[in-house]
Design goal:
Elements (H helix, E strand, L loop, with lengths): L2 E5 L2 E3 L5 E8 L6 E8 L6 E6 L5 E3 L7 E6 L4 E6 L8 E9 L5 E3 L3 E5 L2
Parallel strand pairs: 2-11
Antiparallel strand pairs: 1-3, 3-8, 4-5, 4-9, 5-6, 7-8, 9-10, 9-11
Length: about 120
């Protein structure tokens, strides 16, 4: 059974920080490109950041310079360090695993991030 479990969400003040974690089981983690997505109420799900199986990273413009994505293949975890949080970062954050060669992808259940004073 493939499981992607996000954690670390919660309430943060504007300018604050949160660190999201995605724990993965049931797949060969090192063979998968990973990504963080978010979906705000009434909006489409959007890519926040991605990290390839080889460690290359990409960021959406709104989070560049504030968020950092990383992965630990040994522990099968992916992280998203979110700094200088803004109200517009409020959303449900999802992790996604996509095989680097095959058409196989998996999603987590999401974790809520709320940025408010």
């Amino acid at each position: 059974q493939v499981l992607l479990v996000e954690s670390g969400g919660g309430l943060a003040q504007p300018g604050g920080s949160l660190r999201l974690s995605c724990a993965v089981s049931g797949i060969a983690f090192s063979s998968y490109d990973m990504g963080w997505y978010r979906q705000a109420p009434g909006k489409q799900r959007e890519l926040v950041a991605s990290i390839s199986s080889s460690g290359s990273t990409r960021y959406a413009d709104p989070v560049t310079g504030r968020f950092t994505i990383s992965r630990d293949n040994a522990s099968k975890r992916m992280y998203l360090q979110m700094n200088s949080l803004k109200a517009e970062d409020t959303a449900v954050y999802y992790c996604k695993a996509s095989h680097r060669y095959y058409e196989a992808e998996y999603w987590g259940q999401g974790t809520q991030v709320t940025v408010s004073s």
